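Today's session is about reading a structure prediction critically. Students often jump straight to the picture, but the first step is always the sequence itself: look for stretches that repeat, for charged clusters, for runs of hydrophobic residues. Only then move on to the predicted structure, which in these notes is written as discrete structure tokens rather than atom positions. Here is the chain we will use throughout the hour.
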Amino acid sequence: MRDLVVGFGYLMKGQRWVAGHGRWLGFGLLPGLVTLVLYAGALVGLGYGADNLVGWATPFADGWSSPWLGLLRGFLTALVFTFGLFVAVITFTAVTLLIGQPFYESLSEQVDRTEGGRVPRSGLPLWRELWISARDSLRVVARVVFYGILLFAAGFLPVVGQTVVPALGFAVSGFFLAEELTAVALQRRGVELKERLVLLRGRRMMVLGFGVPLTLAFIVPLVAVFLMPGAVAGATLMVRDLAGTESDEPSPQAPAPYSLDKDRGLNDAGRGGYRS
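Below is the predicted structure for this chain, in token form.
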């Protein structure tokens, strides 16, 4: 329970950090606003075209009598739009982070700078960082869709499907939302996706305390836009706890930062970069 409170505390600290650094709040809002406009346009287009798509996909029902034709195509149209909305919700953060990679990386660096110690940098060109971010985001979305299908099927179970399954759904969404947000700071530290997941699972309750309340808030897209800069700042603060921080002059006797075990550590923040 204590870690849940700690995770929620990082979420609040991140919002307070951007509130106290107004320039960075405005700076961090731009990618979310761009993504919101793109998604709104796509959903409006889907809303207008879903019925035509369903009509094209169900020619076998053209000869059905009323009301069965209307019921079938009305149901399928609602299903298509609901699926589009679901895809928009689960990909909104990933797309916003991808569009705003330079913005959020600069914001994350500034958080590290104001908190003291070194400011880790990946040392990679922008195109390489964008490629890694897009690749990892697709892998995360694939995991979310996989768990979503399992939970959807489990939702038909009596009692459990109406109580436990929704709670598990928010937990899964919260965990992977936190993964996407911490990726900004961890990618600068040279931490790859597989290692990020190991790191986050080691403090699962803290990660859920950060990610689940944010998932609930992100259900409203406009709220997601305004919370995103603080979420990135809070995720960076949490990463400093998860991965450890470096002082400006580390002792030669000090253990290597960001190590997952004694034989295989993560990249040193001073060097950055990804292992091949």
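Discussion point for the tutorial: Confidence is low (pLDDT under 50) at residues 246-276.
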